[in-house]
Design brief:
Layout (H helix, E strand, L loop, with lengths): L33 H12 L2 E2 H8 L3 H14 L2 E3 L3 H4 L6 E4 L4 E7 L3 E8 L4 E8 L6 H17 L8 E5 L3 E3 L4 E4 L11 H4 L1
Parallel strand pairs: 4-7
Antiparallel strand pairs: 1-3, 2-3, 4-5, 5-6, 8-9
Length: 196
Amino acid sequence: VGARTPGAGRPLRTDRMRTVIVHTPAVGNAQLPVRSRVLALLRDSGALSLGDVSARLQIAQARLAAELDRLRATGLVRRAGSADARGSRGPAAVELHPDLRFATVDVGVTSIDVEITDGRLASVAAYAESADIRSGPKILLGRLREILAKFRVDGAYARLHAIGMGVPGLVSFRDGFAVGSPVMPGWARYPVREVL
């Protein structure tokens, strides 16, 4: 497997992707959990101070500080700049952790495209190859695992935090599997989420 450099080769065909595993709702929806809203804001805006995050999301700073402590404990965010290294507890900005990595996968009828992105969704590595959806989920998902393993060996990520996958058919978002399609023999109700 040879990884493409970001932006090289053909782009991922996101027009045909259906999300199976990951969904990131828009920032500002008050019904979403605070952590989801904070992560989406930092993804879209970059490093922000506690006050800026509090004002934009309309969340009290005390509650927000507690949520940020939980997010820091999981490794999803960190203090921006060198504040972490100094152990500073001042009004430092927070940002998504630079080691945050996601995989986006587009399994098409005739190809498989994989991209690793950072927390702000900038491309870290990408790869595409011909594939036949009719070869079935065991073969294609096995190949996907090989591609992801190669990315890891090449240093594109140490840990994947989420995988989003699209397939050319109907999908049960709740259950994480394809419902079935004449073009996808063997995929109906195959436990994609559990296999990945």
